[in-house]
Design a protein that fits this description.
The structure is a single chain. The chain is mainly alpha-helical. The chain has one domain. The protein is about 70% helix and about 0% strand. The longest helix is centred in the first third of the chain and has 30 residues. It is elongated, with a radius of gyration of 30 Å. This is Membrane-associated phospholipid phosphatase. Keywords: Membrane, Transmembrane, Transmembrane helix.
């Protein structure tokens, strides 16, 4: 049945919402990748998003009153996207998940994702050299530009996505799609609005940074899923010292020592350490 007819048949029963949610959950990485490539293409071709819409949003935000309390709150919220603040929080959550799962795979996931994301951001910033929003020039290859993509937006989105993933792992439960979506969208939206209000970035910079952040987390989780059996491999625990398999040389040495002391086999209790003055029965 075509998707439209099937959706019409399921309308009113609530099943079409589940079908749409499942379809979106399975294909959101592809949609996010397409959106990120679309923003990058528009930037390279000087399309309407990065030349017209960015400038108009920047001018509209600049016309808003920047009073004392609002400005202070905006600067405080802007710090939530800084690497030095979000990275320790995510690493602490990863260590918690490692302790609960008895595996270091969550920590390798966090460290690998953060490292790869910062490498990609650095390459894009130093290659494109997009002008900063405070200069009013959205073009590329501007000296000391480095505005695209937004590192703050990428940090906020990736940290939120990693925290959702790590909390679910530590608790051993699955988080609802709606809760996970809210937990990632809200910090990303706050960072976007704050950065636009302060005039630090263009809108396309923040959009690309948020998309890049969640995609890097998804890619890191996919890689960790393939390497998970190796990362979670642990040595078997020994319940008692007598369960240990001794090497052949060690076993031979013990056998020769026991053969050289026949009294040890005849009187095992003689090897026990007795207290001073104790007598045998």
């Amino acid at each position: 049945m075509p998707f439209g007819l099937r959706a019409a048949a399921l309308r009113g029963t609530g099943e079409h919402r589940e079908a749409a949610a499942s379809w979106l959950a399975a294909r959101w990485p592809l949609l996010a990748t397409a959106a990120l490539l679309g923003v990058l293409t528009d930037l390279l071709l000087a399309g309407p998003l990065t030349t017209v819409l960015d400038v108009r949003i920047h001018e509209w935000m600049g016309a808003l009153p920047h009073t004392g309390p609002d400005l202070v709150l905006a600067h405080v919220l802007d710090h939530t996207g800084q690497r030095w603040l979000v990275t320790p929080v995510v690493i602490a959550a990863a260590l918690w998940a490692c302790r609960r799962r008895r595996s270091w795979s969550s920590l390798w996931l966090v460290l690998g994702t953060i490292f790869a994301m910062n490498v990609v951001i650095a390459i894009a910033k130093f290659t494109l050299d997009r002008g900063l929003a405070i200069t009013g020039d959205p073009s590329l290859f501007v000296p000391n530009g480095q505005a695209f993509p937004s590192g703050h937006a990428a940090n906020a989105a990736s940290a939120a996505a990693l925290l959702v993933l790590l909390v679910a792992r530590a608790r051993g439960t699955r988080i609802r799609r709606s809760s996970a979506l809210v937990a990632v969208v809200v910090p990303s939206t706050v960072m976007t609005v704050v950065s636009l209000y302060l005039g630090f970035h263009w809108f396309s910079d923040l959009l690309a940074g948020s998309l890049l952040g969640v995609l890097m987390v998804r890619a890191g989780a996919a890689v960790e899923g393939r390497l998970g059996p190796r990362l979670r491999r642990r040595r078997p625990r020994v319940s008692t010292p007598f369960d240990t398999d001794l090497p052949e040389t060690e076993a031979a040495r013990l056998a020769s020592a026991r053969a050289a002391d026949p009294a040890r086999d005849r009187a095992p209790h003689a090897q026990l350490r007795r207290r001073p003055g104790a007598t045998t029965a």
